[in-house]
Amino acid sequence: MSSADTSAVGTPAPVPPRASGLVPAGRQRWQTHTGLVQPRKPAFWLLLGLVGAGVLYFLLEQLLFIAISPAGWVLSWVLISLYIVPVVAVVLWLDLYEREPPSLMVGAFLWGALVAIPFSGVNNGIWGVVVTRLAGPEVAAYWSPALTAPLVEEIYKYLGLAVLFLIARHELDDLMDGFVYGALIGLGFAVVEDVGYFMTAFGGDVGGVVFGFFVRTVAAGLYGHVLFTGLAGIGFAYLVTRGGERSLGRRLLVAVGLLGLAIGAHFFWNAPWLWPEDGDVIGFLGAMTVKGMPFFICLVVLLRLSRSREHASLVEALRTEVAHGGLLAEEIELLRDPGRRRAAVRRVAAAAGPAAAGLLARLQRAQLDLAVASHRLHAPQHAELGRRRAVCHDLRTKLWRVPGVLEALGMPAETVERVRAMPEPDVFKVQARVAPTGGWAWATPTYDDPRRGALVPGLALQVMEHHGNWLLVRAENGWLGWTDSRYLYPTAV
Amino acid sequence: MPERRDREPRGCLPTFAIGLLMFAIVGAGVAASDALSERPAVPVVIGAGVSIRPPLSWSFVSRFEAPTGEEDSVLLTRGVGSLLAYTSDASVEAELDELRRQLSTSSLVSLGQTEAVDVHPGRNGWRFAFSGALPELAAVPVEGEVVAIVGSSVVLVSVSWSDVGSYELIRPEIDQMLAGATIP
Predict the structure, then answer these.
(1) pTM of the shown model
(2) Are A166 and B44 within 8 A, CB to CB?
(3) pLDDT tens-place string over residues B13-63
(4) Quick check: A130 and B32 CB within 8 A?
(5) Pick from A137, A155, A156: which is nearest to B59 by CB?
(6) CA gyration radius, chain A
């Protein structure tokens, strides 16, 4: 408590906002995530400009494909959609604990589809000419795809990771995040590239498109761009997130090593080794397995390592929240193990019905979100954490009222008594109102916190905590924020 | 209590560096390609000491068995047209007769007269044109020609074709390749 910014005492509060700029407090949420749209960041404008140009390139290419075969083009996009859905589902499943902002995930996909593709296409052509001039057309025919594409394409996809990092560096805070953004860049690239292959190399007619889909997506879908850029993304995340733990040299070594591994995997895949004669399906599947499986296993191992690290961080955050009242010590063992979480939901469903089981599932999700937010924000007094703690407390109170739930959860009697002694979270008591001049509220009790919102005059508030002149206030709809007491006047309760 | 601030660096310099790198890779490729433009094209060896130098617009496709024998043949393409080249130990008359016989098995193909041509300096050559739908090419109507150039110990045979109406576009490049061929 005493660690709050005490500069409010004796410091004039910032001038209240003009009436025209006032925002009802309840309509806003303190941002705990950064979205893609960051006009202050030059990287955002770079991405926007390149995506805009990429759209033109994409449209021209698609018009060409439509001219080749309208039916084949439609079928290509229908079939490739069948690939997008499971890949995105797996990525989201792996990103279980700390969901990335959807806008950034879309940005990653667009970079792969609309930026990396045209730059790679132009460069593959130019560098292919260099290979031809140096080694002749026969060597170039066999080796250009292995000598140019891996280097060019992996670099352009990798630069997308760097751009996303520059736009929203706080979102890239663990190895899994690097995989998520890398995999989505790779997915965007693979989707547009595959449609191009279906319409050109495989002829573009319906039969060719179906065959191309089988070869490139069904049979080889595990080993393509999602794998390559996912690997490189983990390395990039290691570089930018382990600053306090590992030396720069080591982080660079890991990042360059994993980018090199991605390039190497791509080179090995594109090299003319092992591919059988046309028509040898068994040989083809065998070659794909030999060429892709070692790198796929490597990716799975890295993902398991980053998942276990993320899990350890989550458990630590859960423990921190016990100290701040967001969680009960008894709930931690349940939350840290997905199997035990599901078993608890089943027990509650059997003992107290599906509605109670639904409440428990919501409580668990809210508690995990609270732990993740707590880990991200590094500020126990952040108003957003206060709001989330209140949500958890509210859900727990409702759940525990259902007969049979406490027995099913095996909660100790003393814990139940302690929690029931806490104030009812859903009872809103008007203790103050915003002065006629209006006021400001902050995410944390600090004037220079840029996360600031305006308070409308007369807004009814409940005071949750005091720190000198700083008050953690709550609006009737559950919104919480820190404000200066000089913006308020008390009301009779 | 550590208070996290959102005062992130705006990242002007790294953003500029990324944009620069993206275009620098393109520029480096163009510069490297230009620097190598004066270098003589690397030849494609067909066999028996015979080689040709395809222009950059032509790509190597594959090697496979020649249509009239066991020798390797080389298939090149430039999208709109293709060139199949191989060598033969047989006499030029026998080679051309065999090709005429093979092409005329399809009633949809018409053949022109065989005539002497001066394609390669110092070497005798013969040429005949053909047009029609070749079963080997999915019965798509094409036009093209067969050229045979006689060396001291070997005959270079080229079969080139394109979609109907496009052959005149690729013929100069084919003649250029044949004129520059190394034929022992």
Answers:
(1) 0.83
(2) no
(3) 999 999 999 999 999 999 999 999 988 889 999 988 899 999 989 999 998
(4) yes
(5) A137
(6) 27
Q: CA A237, CA A253: separation in Å to the nearest integer?
A: 13
* Closest residue in chain B to residue A160, using alpha carbons only: B18
The complex scores an ipTM of: 0.89
Q: Is A450 on the interface with B (CB under 8 A)?
A: yes
- Encode pLDDT of A261-285 as tens digits: 999 999 999 999 998 887 788 999 9
- Which has the closest alpha carbon to A187: A113, A86, A115? A113
Taking Cα atoms as reference points, which of A253, A266, A258 lies closest to residue A231? A258
Residue with tokens 């030059």: A42
